[in-house]
Amino acid sequence: MASQHSPKRFKSMSRPDRTSRATQDTKMTLLPVKTRVQAVLQMAMVREFLAEFLSTYIMMVFGLGSVAHWVLSKDLGSYLGVNLGFGFGVTMGIHIAGNISGAHMNAAITFTSCALGRLPWKKFPVYVLSQFLGSFLAAATTFLLFYGAIMSFSGEQLIVSGPLGTAGIFATYLPDHMTLWRGFLSELCIMAITDKKNSPALEGTHAVVIGILVVIIGISLGMNSGYAINPSRDLPPRFFTFIAGWGNEVFSTKNWWWVPVVAPILGAYLGGLVYLVFIEYSFPQEPQILENYKVSKDDGTPALPKTQPPLTSVNPNSVSTEVTPTVKSAPPPNDTIYIEHL
């Protein structure tokens, strides 16, 4: 027997309605994703990673670009231009990341900051990885920008050393003696610039002063080591040249590759220790006062806390003959306590 009920008919949505509904669904799907991405980017460690990455990238693009001008065209570049390129690159990097990560842009400075207790060790791999990635990407960017000039200069070959060598655009290839004092002097001066107890740079001028310091180090001491004061500046671009086609010679030439990595770290650490021992620790230490403790006497001596309740007016008629034992509470530890910060 056929059913007496007719099948239900649904009204189909028009095309504009379907499009609007799909757009709303897409927005609702993307909203949680956007929120999660923002939450991740706002994490302190992520912000510091990105800040170190971008500041190092900017510094290296300016620096390597100036070296490329000097190597590939003596008319357009100069040794002074190389120093200015790295110096202003450091300045721009500090402006980009100074208030987020401190804009180290240098694994030697990061290591020294951790070793001296000014940065947690858990941040060391994060900082160094971001610096290395930024430096590596800057080397790749420079190679792409100057690829035609490099090939034209070296006769369509990638040569490490010699008159037609171009690997020196990206890393240092210099004499065998170490560069310990370059890192030493760099860290010593940087700590003096930022020490507020000494004669620091004026507020807002730290980036420029540190940039000038980099220029001065290059002008006065760069000839001996090729400006090898930063492991993050030297090792990642050297890896890039190894991958890009310069070959094993980038590591085997004069066995120099490890010096710009090890010596600046040792020099920076020793320089930091010397500054702390001879300069910072020599400042008279001001006593620190614990919170919630106050000095109540004008002569600065600790005052005993008041344990008596405030006096109130007494009505003679309300005085009772009963002897009520009074229990005095122990005075709270409100005396001023001085702490000498070692």
UniProtKB/TrEMBL annotation:
Transmembrane segments: 49-72, 78-97, 126-151, 207-229, 256-278
Chief site of localization: membrane
Ranges of biased composition (kind: Polar residues): 309-327
Biased composition (Basic residues): 1-12
Reaction(s) the record says it catalyses: H2O(in) = H2O(out); glycerol(in) = glycerol(out)
InterPro entries reported in the protein's UniProt record: Aquaporin-like (IPR023271), MIP (IPR000425), MIP/Aquaporin (IPR050363)
Keyword Chloroplast: no
Alphabetical UniProt keywords: Membrane, Transmembrane, Transmembrane helix, Transport
Pfam families, per the entry: MIP (PF00230)
Membrane topology of this protein: Multi-pass membrane protein
Region (Disordered): 1-25, 300-330
Subcellular localization(s) per the UniProt record: Cell membrane
Keyword match Protein biosynthesis: no
Family: Belongs to the MIP/aquaporin (TC 1.A.8) family.
Protein name: Aquaporin-7 isoform X2
